[in-house]
Amino acid sequence: MKDSKDLRLIDRYLQGDEFAFNDLYRTHHVLFKRVAYEVLNNSNDVNDVIHESMYKMSKYVQNFRRQCSFHHWASNIVRNTGLNLIKKRESELRRSPEYHYQAVTVVPYTNPLMFLLYKEMSEAVFKFYEQHLTHREREVVFFKDNLGYNNHETAELLDSTYSNITSSYYNAMKKVQKYLPELGYLERKVYHLRFIV
């Protein structure tokens, strides 16, 4: 059984056998890479996330509760490490002056009115998110609308429940309808301006 082999390797590592942890990595590295890639959705940061995750596993393996499988415990560490990286990047992006113009970069610059409207939309959404949505609501909207995860996937990634994710997203969308009516107006203006050369 893989679980019993994992437990033996953990015991060896805790007794001072450094090579035992390398064996654990070799046993599960394919799973770790798949989990990291699913969270990050790109291959550039996967190895960094796995290295940091392995460091955390080696540091906290003495706290591993043996009621669950090692690969489940370790996969959660990889997943949370990847999510933390996403949150860190998102935070850095929000602090950068380019953040407000992110939506504009994908818009052709042939029409200066569209450029200005996309800039206005981006600033309105950013200000609204910061002022009216809770941290959890911003997370849920980010994972569902930006990354394309469904409620079940978002719940698993954020270590939450389906009902909590559904409720958070519903509350966020209610706030959008209540506090951001001008966004719909701006979107309609952008739609019509697309046909102006």
Sequence stretches where pLDDT stays below 50 over 5 or more residues: 99-110, 188-197
CATH topology of the largest domain: Arc Repressor Mutant, subunit A
Order of helices and strands: HHHHHHHHH
Terminus-to-terminus distance: 67 Å
CATH class of the largest domain: Mainly Alpha
Number of domains: 2
Specify Rg, calculated over alpha carbons.
22 Å
Topology:
Layout: H1 2-14, H2 18-40, H3 46-60, H4 70-95, H5 112-132, H6 135-146, H7 151-157, H8 162-179, H9 181-193
Describe the structure.
It contains nine helices and no strands. It is an all-alpha fold. It folds into two domains: 88 residues, RNA polymerase sigma factor, region 2, helix turn helix motif (Rna Polymerase Sigma Factor, Chain: A, Orthogonal Bundle), CATH 1.10.1740; 98 residues, Arc Repressor Mutant, subunit A (Orthogonal Bundle), CATH 1.10.10. The N and C termini lie far apart (67 Å).
Question: Summary?
Answer:
With 197 residues, this protein is mainly α.
Fill in the keyword field for this structure:
single chain, 197 residues, mainly alpha, Rna Polymerase Sigma Factor, Chain: A, Arc Repressor Mutant, subunit A, 9 helices
